[in-house]
Amino acid sequence: MKGAKAVLLASVAIGTFFGSAQAQENVAASPAAPADDGEIVVTAQRRAQALSDVGMSITAIGGEALAQRNVTRAEDLSKLVAGLSVSDSGFSTPIYTLRGVGINEPSVGSTSSVAIYVDEVPLAYPITTQGAALDLQRIEVLKGPQGTLYGQNSTGGTINYIANKPTDDFAAGVTGTFGRFNRGSLEGFISGPIAPTLKARIAARGTLGSGWQRSLTRDDSIGKVENFVGRAIVEWEPSDIFRVTFNANGWIDRSDNLVPQLVRVTPTNPALALPKVLNAPRPVGNARDTDWEPDTSLDRNDKFWQGSVRAELDISDEVTLTSITAYSHLDRHQTTDYDGIANALAVQREQFGKIKSLYQEVRLSASFSGVNWVVGVNISDDETSDRILEDIRDSSTVRLLAGLPAHGAGTRVDQKINNWGVFTSIDIPLTDQLNFTGGIRLSEETRKFEGCGTIMDEFSAPAYTNLINIFRAGAGLPPVPLFQVGECFSLYRTAAGQAQDTGGLPLLTPGLARKELKENNVPWNLNLNFKPTDRSLIYARVSRGYKSGNFATLGALDPIVYGPVVQEKLTAYELGGRVSISRRLRFEAAVFRYDYINKQLRARVFAPPVGNISAQDNIPKSKIEGAEFSAMISPVRDLTLNLSGTYIKSKVVRYTGFSVIGSTPEDLSGTPFNFTPKYSLNADLNYSHPVSNDLDAFVGVNVAYRSKTSAVFTPPGSTGLQDFDINQYTLVDGQLGVSSAEGKWKAWFWGRNIFNKYYWTNVVKAADVTVRFPGMPATYGVSASMTF
């Protein structure tokens, strides 16, 4: 990609003076809408500001642009935001990575390194973010640590979804879409006043579709879509100084899980490998071909709902008190065929999960003589639960466990997480052109963990009982009786592991492990913003963020594998700027460096008798260096071109661990991060033109390029890890349609991945198999919308 590299570096060199935010399309009219001169207004710092005044890297995408590009999932944002990767974990939990900062952890109770908010209400767990992209005014992607105002778990940045709000007058709209694989959706909203001081907006979307994946061995398909998402917002303004907003939202998902494609079979115990696993067919160059166990239901039954109340009191013209209260609840039940093989249970997983989350924030904000400040406190009280049954009866891993066969194992993990934080931020004009912004937060989190591996069925109980008794006999301890289904078999085999257990589980005694992790941190940020003109900005920013520690979710024989991993710390240095020349031209660019301490990763450990298994770990020291640019060019009124790109060089400075296929520790220093392409490039071209007094025509093309990366940490010069490569790819989407001149209705044809590029976003090793998760093939269809 030498050409792309040259273009990117040249663009950064030319644009460094100007800026580091991307604004695609004008956002919809609202209190945070573009001014008449085309200036973009955002609320990244919890107040409305012109984008040209905000000293950080921001991508802002308007609701109309999102709707026209059929953005309904988090994964769709990757095509619009350079430097953002949203990958499929295989368990309906998206993996967010922004500027190389992220963690491949699919469990229910794990938090992301990229914070997700909807109208300033957090969606703390990635699995809960599925329904966020509904009836949106805009999306703001804030890059770099955002811990001061958005708390921990925002080391990579923050994605803010801003929903459309109730209108003063009656309004309604409907959008229908139908496309390939019989996938259709119907979305609508209704908005307006209910009473003189009360107005509401209700929005909903339902999507149905047939299976798009097909079996290699029989006439069968899978991949149906069946989900519903809804939101109701009610605003009550009994006086000029007091406002209350009620928000109820949720989603139901009964879609099929994505079935991965078999890449390779590498038996843990080759002598016990079955021919039907070793000889299973593998797809070649096609996203649709895979396989799964016949007559098995792989659909989800996931449900999420959230309620929030936001109250604002204007104490004076300059001071406002804001309270945000929210409660979220998730229930999860799904089955995943994780091996890409028919007629063999190499890896099949049934999962049950639950999240209960209570959040409260109170803050005081004020503006005096150009000085803006905010001080606040927030607390959260969460409970998460994971139950997993992993059937690997046809893998060599457990076909003979301590001399007896087993089907697999279960996992039981429960966590209680309590967090509080106190924060403040201030914005001070030093001169007419120079401004200082600073903020600091004090946070503390206590995480209590209970977990163990469990007996999944009666067939497996004798093997695990025999295995445990072998360990106990070696220490001169009496045997345990035959395990019952659901009973814990995990036990500490060393005093080092036992020392982490707060529940006093005796050595070599199976039972429920209990651990506790208590951490505190102080994220902060310092900004100097210099405005040479009203429409330009140069900024220097230094910030520090943290991601909270965590415990692993897996059916471990020895609970030492549960961890914990401690909190990660990221210190970021960024220099950038932006300039706008009327509505026709905007340039933006930045350079940045991240210094990482204790970066969290989904690592590998060697745990006999099973072998190399997935776990969590910390990288003591690592770093990221990079640059990004964006430009908006509108040479004529009807034509707009948006360009953006990101260059990232990531590196492990010091870490010794296991590779995904290793059985002994090795030095992984010098390894680039996983899910971190060196180059990300985006181009978005839109043209509209009147064809009559009443009719406009429009056409749009979006191109997204991602260079090669890996799903695992791959040391330079290593061999045997090519299966985990995520190859470079370019995706092209397009739209062609007509609309009424006043914008009341619109109809358009659309295509996604028009050239049917075969690509994948994740590669995983589980038991004896390595599998990859393909992206969607070419899809196309027609959409129409109307507002009233």
CATH names the topology as Maltoporin, Chain A
The count of domains is 1
CATH superfamily: TonB-dependent receptor, beta-barrel domain
- CATH architectural arrangement: Beta Barrel
What's the helix count? 6
Distance between the termini: 48 Å
* Uncertain ranges: 1-37
List keywords for this structure.
6% helix, six-stranded mixed sheet, Maltoporin, Chain A, disordered N terminus, 22-stranded antiparallel β-barrel, 788 residues, mainly beta
Description:
- By secondary structure, the chain is mainly beta.
- The chain has a single domain (about 1-240, about 250-785), classed as TonB-dependent receptor, beta-barrel domain (Maltoporin, Chain A, Beta Barrel).
- Helices cover about 5% and strands about 55% of the residues.
- It contains six helices and 44 strands.
- The chain has a 22-stranded antiparallel beta barrel. It has a six-stranded mixed sheet with strand order 1-4-10-11-8-9. It has a three-stranded antiparallel sheet with strand order 5-6-7, with no helix packed on it.
- A hairpin with a 3-residue loop joins strand 12 and strand 13.
Summarize the structure.
The protein is mainly beta and 788 residues long. A hairpin with a 4-residue loop joins strand 21 and strand 22.
Topology:
Blueprint lengths: L1 H14 L6 E3 L16 E2 L6 E2 L6 E6 H6 L15 E5 L5 E5 L2 E2 L11 E5 L2 E2 L13 E8 L3 H4 L6 E7 L7 E9 L3 E13 L2 E12 L3 E3 L5 E2 L2 E15 L2 E12 L7 E5 L9 H4 L10 E2 L11 E13 L4 E19 L10 E21 L2 E21 L16 E22 L4 E21 L6 H14 L20 H4 L14 E9 L2 E7 L5 E12 L20 E14 L3 E23 L3 E23 L5 E16 L1 E2 L8 E2 L11 E12 L4 E12 L2 E2 L14 E2 L2 E12 L4 E8 L7 E7 L2 E6 L4 E9 L1
